[in-house]
Give the backbone structure.
Amino acid sequence: AQTVTQSQPEMSVQEAETVTLSCTYDTSENNYYLFWYKQPPSRQMILVIRQEAYKQQNATENRFSVNFQKAAKSFSLKISDSQLGDTAMYFCAFMKPVNYGGSQGNLIFGKGTKLSVKP
Amino acid sequence: DGGITQSPKYLFRKEGQNVTLSCEQNLNHDAMYWYRQDPGQGLRLIYYSQIVNDFQKGDIAEGYSVSREKKESFPLTVTSAQKNPTAFYLCASSISVSQNQQFFGPGTRLTVL
């Protein structure tokens, strides 16, 4: 069974600085998807960034980028120029492609990292 | 505006009662999902539906039931058989199960008194 581990329950960063959130996962699959979701105090889940495992290039979305290390099964999120609005819970998630058995389209989440951006 | 709505935002239930959480989407998505979130935990899949009149159990389906009579609606019933129903419930949808991006609703907080 796939598992996702986020080893940092809480982190803090000063505004305008850079922070990296860690995520490791366990799977025997070769093809899959990885995601980072943000959950602010409103509790709305917002997709931050996604990565297809077959792509070697790391995904980037404005100030957010990932470091995807497939062999190490690591998927960290880097937030540059941190802003107060980045304060939220961040969840790493894994998804098997359809037709690989089990719950299709099932997102498997880590327990989250609570990020606080301080002024 | 296109999106996913969940109602109510807060719900209180007495022990032994069934309660139904609403989820509606106007994104014309085929696939819909229900997740449960407990404090300090990530989300766990309860049920999902790939298409109208079809649904499948997720990882924690015991004590829950769903229906999918319309494309835009996927209500979740929390039955009295669910031993620990107090949690935050999130509904999501995607164009299809094969499309990996899921969009989430704002959630419903259920508290059993």
